[in-house]
Amino acid sequence: MIIVMQPDAGEAEIAAVEAKIRSHGLDVHVSRGTERTLIGAIGDERKLDPEMFDPLPGVERSLHILKPYKLVAREWHKASTTIDVGGTRIGGTDVQVIAGPCSVETVPQMEAAAAGVAAGGARLMRGGAFKPRTSPYAFQGKGIEGLTMLKNAASRHQLPIVTELMDVRMLDTFLEHDVDVIQIGTRNMQNFDLLKEVGKVDVPVILKRGMSATISEWLMAAEYIAAGGNHRIMLCERGIRTFETAYRNVLDVTAVAVLKKETHLPVVVDPSHAGGKAWMVPALSCAAVAAGADALLIEVHPCPADAWCDADQALSIPEFAQLMQRIGALAVAMGRSLASPVAGATREPALAV
Ligand code: PEP
Ligand code: MN
User: Fold this and answer.
1) Of 63, 99, 186, 235, whose CB has the highest number of CB atoms within 10 Å?
2) What residue's CA is closest to ligand 1, atom 3?
3) What is the pLDDT along the chain (353 residues), one digit of tens a residue?
4) CB 100 within 8 A of CB 125
């Protein structure tokens, strides 16, 4: 951190800043120019904050030199991280697809969804048992029963499961139900107590981007999880709020490129919650793969019109199968490949994009 002193700052003011830096265990380097004195803090500057110095007499401003995140930064960990979920690697050469309904509804719905997404080539299955709904009167999810339904349906097709954890009190239940990947939703990206708890468990996490979060805030949220010891984190771009009202959210494809540079963690894109309409999902999926996404998280329902949640954005099973062929061809064009379906499931050969 560098503290820039005002032109007329006196020796006593400079000494006070030095003392404050030393009181946090860092060393000091003072540089006296012709017009200004700059005071550098030497050591782990993440312990310091501009708020500590800006109010002091004689200080003009103070600024961090290093990025505020460390464990998740590529600066400190050059190689890309790959995360193994039940034998499926996310973050490697293969593009992975996670698919399933927005919410777990019934046993037949889950059985049909699991069979459909496995046949389409998804390697993980999603499904919300606890749903964050805008209205308290809307369907809130099947709860614990939903976890069982998701696990049973997915297991029959050797698909690990991804499901959202909203409440820290449910964490033990998630572990008991062998949830393979814990999803932290957009509304909880900065629920720091929740992040600290998932940081202590040995289960991979998909951390969705807060709908109004900057990339730096998002990476700091990931840093919370990593700081607890859990380094198996995937970041999921799911669209952000802007002035545009023609679609649900704006898929920030730029964020994919920035994340690949800034962090070693795998990047997932959710085209379903971004566009909010099923017809947009193929275009946004292709944009995500072209931008370098490691995985897609796609909502698929055996009968979209009957979905209890997010009906407008769910792909049908045939639509999903068709999209997987496009993604397969595009992945190859990008020097990657789409992971092959789980054993026993078959997919049609890739068509031209
Ligand atoms: C979801 O994936 O079902 C979901 C609620 O997503 P988000 O948190 O991105 O809105
Ligand atoms: Mn949804």
Assistant:
1) 99
2) 102
3) 999 999 999 999 999 999 999 999 999 999 999 999 999 999 999 899 999 999 999 999 999 998 889 999 999 999 999 999 999 999 999 999 999 999 999 999 999 999 999 999 999 999 999 999 999 999 999 999 999 999 999 999 999 999 999 999 999 999 999 999 999 999 999 999 999 999 999 999 999 999 999 999 999 999 999 999 999 999 999 999 999 999 999 999 999 999 999 999 999 999 999 999 999 999 999 999 999 999 999 999 999 999 999 999 999 999 999 999 999 999 999 999 998 998 777 665 545 44
4) yes
Closest CA to 267 of 240, 294, 238: 294
Is residue 91 within 8 A of residue 81, CB to CB? The reply is yes
Query: 109 CA distance to ligand 2 centroid (A)?
Result: 15
Residue whose CB lies within 8 A of the most ligand 1 atoms, among 238, 240, 301, for a mutation test? 238
